[in-house]
Amino acid sequence: MREGKRRVLTYGTFDLLHVGHVRLLERAAALGGELIVGVSTDDFNVIKGKRAQYSYGERAEIVAALRCVDEVIAEERWDQKADDIRRLNIDLLVMGSDWEGSAHFADLDGLCELVFLPRTEGISTTSIKDDLSKGA
Ligand code: C2G
After folding, report:
1. pLDDT higher than 90, residue 90
2. Which among 5, 48, 81, 129 is annotated as catalytic?
């Protein structure tokens, strides 16, 4: 059951999409009526110190295909969040708990509600890559 017309926003790289990502996105979507996802561009991933297996275009296409996702935007800079919240009329910014307390999300609570959801333990894109490289 989607709650009213609240507009929810979240951000991420979403490389090698796995259940941790999907469970975050589904829980975020359930908190509102629409879910907008900022997918990190390849250039922004360099800034984040991440190297994604899939290109931005592929990751955006995969995330956009999810039933719980209504719109995908590009995440190009750490500091675009306040503008995104205003421009997209966001009510709720939802992230996994590993982002709670991050300076990148400070000062946004005056613009919209911030929700940090528990991460799904035991899975990460990094662990998937490590397992594959070890032939696990
Ligand atoms: N996540 C999760 N459980 C996991 C793995 C990821 O709940 N096992 C969540 C993360 O907390 C994040 C989202 O899924 O909210 C996307 O994770 P990543 O693709 O790793 O994104 P990240 O590098 O955290 O980028 O500006 C914010 C950044 O772009 C977030």
Report:
1. yes
2. 48
